């Protein structure tokens, strides 16, 4: 049974994790930055060493092509991203890109020539930290966002993405989507606690949660904390707290698939002895089923109306982001399960709670994802970690699935 | 029936409200500031014009004495403060000081010589905005805080109160408490909605709420908002919200006298898609009865223990301030009621929700307060307003009560 070169794969993961560290040792490779450029140079160099035909498209997606049979057919694509959040871990994104490279090298070095071409993509700006929206490179590649609009995006630091890509040498000539894949498979760290908690090595990701982001502003009336009787208060902070607790109960009351999070909450005037006049909070709702996500949103809208009446406050809602859930290709999911089982690895079907490039590529072709366990469920955090054996097992499953798809 | 000179009283209130306005027209006379010095100069000048013997003690309390009978007995003291919050209204504090001056002038100009001396105090740093604690001048006068400690207080701007008092010329020679009053009566705007809502002219303040200020820090675990199932979360924000709603219910469940406010609440890391790892909030509990306040605090401590267990979070509490409730002198309260009724003014007994100099003076002598309505219940706000007729009515009631106490 063919396997990837574990030492080379892990060595490159470690090497890439050194690109973009600051004096304090913190890893940050924001999309379009110098550090992103340096990371891309490293990955592109490894692609060329592996004999790939390296292309860059207009949104900066870095794509290596290998067509040993010379068919020019639609490729089986692997990929992920190498941009990071601020003070990031080493595994989010890079694992999928470097595992894809290891898969091609394993086949090539074993003298295997797949019938279909293979492609490996490092998509631009998956994290969306500097430029919104996230998953931008794959979204543009899949035709979901016009290239001109994407290039004109102004970042949190006032920069323009197109200008920054040109500056770091990754404003390429290819039209995004220039190769429509036959299939897309992405290996990624889970970024959640499920696999580790259940002691399972491989996640066969069958769907991906829809996401609804809203900002809610509640306006009550500031007043003296000592002299205002409870019955006469219009406390925006209490209204916000009622909303937070309702969201938790509503999420729990379902079948366990809906999640709701209030990550930001600000009170004004923010004084110990003044009843809050205004509360501003964000709501992050996710569910893998479109109908359930829409029902949660509808219930939330109703709850906000009731809250305004019951608490004598006004409530304003601003939509920040909305992605429908994605169902991955069932045959690909079965192929991932089968490959794991054939290697004696424990496997379970699961839902991705986070967004990934695979959800955009699913608009173009059959797609699915392979997850490997995150220690402690941590991600977007320097403590992010996946055990070496799990990383290698995931890359080997990717190898088997891609080999099967490419027409062994 | 003797009355105060309404036009002179209201004119001085308006004049004093012009001292300390900035270019934008905002009124700020922080304790020990240049503006405070200018306000004191104005008030001291009016005291001298009224024939008072003006004294300043070491903490800067400005005290005018009038002893027409030459008895040297313990004076009946009136007073309040002229320092303000930032962007203040015209009435908080100044009303009581200038009404006291109007009372003395009314008696003097009518040829009345009270048997006991009268005294009028403008206490230093009642607001506590620049130097903590608030009500500092009256607290020192009543022996509740050593003068050296008070003078060494470092302000929010890094200044030292004693240095600032000397700079503005109000580090006086008298020992705080140099005249122990026979009684103390303070007129003040309500700073709450009760009198206006009930259409009542005069509040006879029979007690003053105890105050308990605490800061609570809840520590959970940051995690991905999409990938972390509801059942596996340790959400510090949800725990904080449960606490906020519990506080409201606990306050409401009593007899309507307890109030609870969460005015500040901060989440960390404060990101839309990250479960809050830490919530920091302030709790302001008030109740006019010591036992009830203590019971509320005990219930809160129990609730925090339960919350830590139920939500798998850690909870740390820091005490910020604590003042026991004050019960004012029943005979004085009855005298205020009787004086209001004799003038045909509607009157009700009530509790002060805010802290006042009178609560400190109650340690030294029988004390009570007269409240007049605040329009809209607003205070600590440039929109703070009390109608002229209400201000004058309050000053006339003060006149009658003081005349009765001083041995007409």
> What is the CATH topology classification name of the largest domain in chain A?
Aminopeptidase
Number of helices in the DSSP assignment of chain A: 12
Structural class assignment of chain A? alpha+beta
- N-to-C SSE string of chain A, H for helix and E for strand: HHEEEHEHHHEHEEEHEEEEHEEHEHEH
Helix content range of the residues of chain A, please?
Answer: 25-40%
Using the 3D structure, state the CATH architecture of the largest domain in chain A: 3-Layer(aba) Sandwich
CATH superfamily of the largest domain in chain A: Zn peptidases
CATH first level of the largest domain in chain A: which class?
A: Alpha Beta
Radius of gyration of chain A, rounded?
23 Å
Number of domains of chain A: 2
Largest chain-chain contact? A-B, 61 and 61 residues
Low-confidence stretches of chain A: none
Strand coverage percent of chain A: 15-25%
Question: Based on DSSP secondary structure assignment, what is the total number of beta strands of chain A?
Answer: 16
Distance between the termini of chain A: 13 Å
Determine the mean pLDDT of chain A.
95
Task: Name the assembly state.
Answer: homodimer
Shape of chain A: elongated
How would you sum up the major sheet of chain A? 9 strands, mixed
Describe this structure as you would to a colleague.
Two copies of one chain form a homodimer. Chain A folds into two domains: 6-208 and 325-405, Zn peptidases (Aminopeptidase); 210-323, 2-Layer Sandwich (Alpha-Beta Plaits), CATH 3.30.70. Chain A is elongated. The first copy, chain A, is built from twelve helices and 16 strands. Chain A is 35% helix and 22% strand. The first copy, chain A, has 408 residues and is an alpha+beta fold. The longest helix of chain A has 22 residues, at 290-311. In chain A, the strands form three sheets. In chain A, strands 1, 2, 3, 4, 5, 6, 14, 15 and 16 form a nine-stranded mixed sheet that branches. In chain A, strands 7, 9, 10, 12 and 13 form a five-stranded antiparallel sheet that branches. At the A-B interface, strand 8, helix 8, strand 9, strand 11 and strand 12 of A face strand 8, helix 8, strand 9, strand 11 and strand 12 of B. Chains A, B: GO terms for molecular function: hydrolase activity, acting on carbon-nitrogen (but not peptide) bonds, in linear amidines; metal ion binding. Chains A, B: Its cofactor is Zn(2+). Chains A, B: Zn(2+) 2 binds at residues 92, 127, 380.
């Amino acid at each position: 049974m063919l396997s990837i070169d574990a030492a080379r794969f892990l060595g490159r993961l470690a090497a890439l994790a050194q690109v973009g560290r600051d004096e304090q040792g913190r890893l940050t490779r924001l999309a379009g930055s110098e550090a992103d450029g340096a990371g891309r140079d490293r990955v592109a160099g490894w692609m060329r060493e592996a004999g790939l035909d390296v292309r860059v498209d207009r949104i900066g997606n870095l794509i290596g092509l290998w067509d040993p049979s010379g068919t020019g057919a639609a490729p089986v694509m692997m990929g992920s991203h190498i941009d990071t959040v601020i003070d990031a871990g080493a595994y989010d994104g890079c694992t999928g890109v470097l595992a894809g490279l290891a898969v091609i090298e394993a086949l090539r070095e074993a003298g295997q020539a797949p019938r279909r071409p293979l492609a490996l993509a490092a998509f631009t700006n998956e994290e969306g930290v500097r430029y919104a929206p996230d998953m931008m490179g794959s979204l543009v590649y899949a035709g979901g966002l016009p290239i001109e609009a994407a290039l004109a995006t102004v970042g949190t630091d006032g920069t323009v993405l197109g200008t920054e890509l040109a500056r770091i040498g990754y404003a390429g000539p290819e039209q995004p989507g220039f190769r429509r894949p036959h299939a897309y498979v992405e290996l990624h760290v889970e970024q959640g606690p499920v696999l580790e908690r259940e002691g399972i090595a491989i996640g066969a990701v069958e769907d991906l949660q829809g996401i609804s982001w809203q900002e809610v502003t509640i306006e009550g009336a500031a007043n003296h904390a000592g002299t205002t009787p409870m019955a006469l208060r219009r406390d925006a902070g209490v209204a916000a707290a009622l909303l937070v607790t309702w969201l938790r109960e509503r999420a729990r009351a379902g079948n366990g698939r809906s999640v709701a999070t209030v990550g930001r909450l600000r009170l004004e005037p923010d004084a110990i002895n003044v009843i809050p006049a205004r509360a501003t909070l964000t709501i992050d709702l996710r569910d893998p089923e479109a109908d359930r996500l829409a029902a949660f949103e509808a219930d939330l809208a109703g709850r906000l109306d009731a809250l305004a009446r019951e608490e004598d406050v006004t409530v304003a809602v601003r939509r920040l982001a909305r992605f429908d859930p994605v169902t991955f290709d069932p045959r690909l999911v079965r192929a991932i399960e089968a490959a794991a089982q054939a290697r004696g690895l424990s496997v379970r079907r699961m839902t991705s709670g986070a967004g990934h490039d695979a959800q955009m590529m699913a608009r173009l072709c059959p797609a699915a994802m392979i997850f490997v366990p995150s220690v402690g469920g941590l991600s977007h955090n320097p403590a992010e970690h996946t055990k070496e054996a799990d990383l290698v097992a995931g890359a080997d499953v990717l190898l088997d699935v891609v080999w099967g798809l490419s027409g062994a």
